[in-house]
Amino acid sequence: MKDKVAIVTGAASGIGLAVSQVLAGAGALVVMADVNEEAGTREAEKIGGFFVEADLSRREGCRALADAALERFGRVDILVNNAGIQHVAPVEDFPEDKWDFMMSLMLTAPFLLTRYCWPGMKERRWGRVIHINSVHGLIASPFKVAYVSAKHGMSGLTKTTALEGGPFGITVNSICPAYVRTPLVDNQIADQARVNNLSSEEVIETIMLKNAAVKRLIEPDEIGRFVLFLCSEDASCVTGSMLTMDCGWTAT
Ligand SMILES: NC(=O)c1ccc[n+]([C@@H]2O[C@H](COP(=O)([O-])OP(=O)(O)OC[C@H]3O[C@@H](n4cnc5c(N)ncnc54)[C@H](O)[C@@H]3O)[C@@H](O)[C@H]2O)c1
User: Fold this and answer.
1) Which atom belonging to ligand 1 lies closest to the Cα atom of 187?
2) Could you tell me if residue 184 is inside a domain?
3) 48, exposed or middle or buried, with CB in 10 Å at 0-12, 13-18, 19+?
4) Ligand 1: residue whose CA is nearest its atom 19
5) Which range of residues forms the domain containing residue 111?
6) Ligand 1 neighbour 182 (Cβ under 6 A)
7) How far apart are CA 101 and CA 204, in angstroms?
8) What are phi and psi of 218, to 5 degrees?
9) pTM for the whole thing?
10) Long-range contacts made by residues 202-209, C-beta under 8 angstroms, separation at least 24?
11) Which of 4, 30, 214, 220 has its CA 20 to 30 A from that of 73?
């Protein structure tokens, strides 16, 4: 990855941080974008990343991120769209503002950043766009209407742009994980434990891993190494794919 420039969104925590660490370890110049300035600055310092504070739920934030990366490095070769949140509520109670926010952050931002990075990738005839999607880009669960809808939209974005990028050496893929051990999931475990009067271990076993053939949480750096493979030349014919790392969940 030497001399390749990568943007990773939501890079201050969890999967985005692990992807940044793996790409930096492989020699890439990593632009780490996040709304959390304190954690982002701290983590970027540790791996020699370039931190950009950006609220990616806003169009100006996406534009400013792309401009900052181009100003600093003159190019973007790899885009990892990762920033996302979860909100759980029945459809009739689902807050309308939360729907708008999640669509902006988890579907519109990946579209905008793809759009902004695309001309340079096309010109250089090489590019990698990787969306950190979810099993919920393929199947649904109740009470996650915005998350599932945004992730299914991300699947459409993946396939359409893969078709457009093929002739120009640009691949576009979605990684679709089941539960990964990150703060996003730790919060869900704590909530479920409280609501169901279970221990954290019981929540993981009886709720989160119910549909899993491999009975464990995925570690963030496993996603990082999957991203690294997709950035390699060996993966240049992998495009438009919804690549599951889901412990067998969608095989059921
Ligand atoms: N953890 C899982 O089990 C899991 C499974 C499948 C998919 N995913 C996906 O992986 C991605 C990362 O999740 P995670 O578990 O690492 O979460 P996380 O909460 O650990 O990290 C998310 C990061 O996104 C940042 N962020 C939030 N709002 C932002 C905004 N408006 N602008 C910029 N940055 C913002 C947060 O500050 C945080 O650093 C998400 O898209 C999520 O849907 C996670």
Assistant:
1) 19
2) no
3) exposed
4) 184
5) 5-179+218-247
6) yes
7) 28
8) -85, 145
9) 0.98
10) 208/179, 209/179, 209/247
11) 220
- Residue 230's nearest CA partner among 108, 128, 79, 106 is 128
Closest CA to 117 of 161, 85, 84: 161
User: Does residue 241 contact residue 173 with C-beta atoms inside 8 Å?
Assistant: yes
In a domain, residue 90? The reply is: yes
d(CA 97, CA 103): 10
Q: Is 82's C-beta closer than 6 angstroms to any atom of ligand 1?
A: yes
Which CATH number covers residue 103? 3.40.50.720
How far, in Å, CA of 139 to CA of 117, rounded?
Answer: 29
Retrieve residue 149's tokens: 């809808």
Q: Other CB atoms closer than 10 Å to residue 234's CB: what's the count?
A: 9
Residue 56, ligand 1, Cβ within 6 A? yes
- Residue 92 counted as domain residue: yes
Count of Cβ atoms closer than 10 Å to residue 228 Cβ: 19
- Chain centroid to Cα 92, Å, comes to 28
Q: Distance (Å, rounded) from C-alpha 242 to C-alpha 138? A: 8
For residue 7, give the 3-state DSSP assignment: strand
Q: How far is the CA of 123 from the centre of ligand 1 (A)?
A: 31
Q: Is the dihedral of CA 156, 111, 231, 44 positive or negative?
A: negative
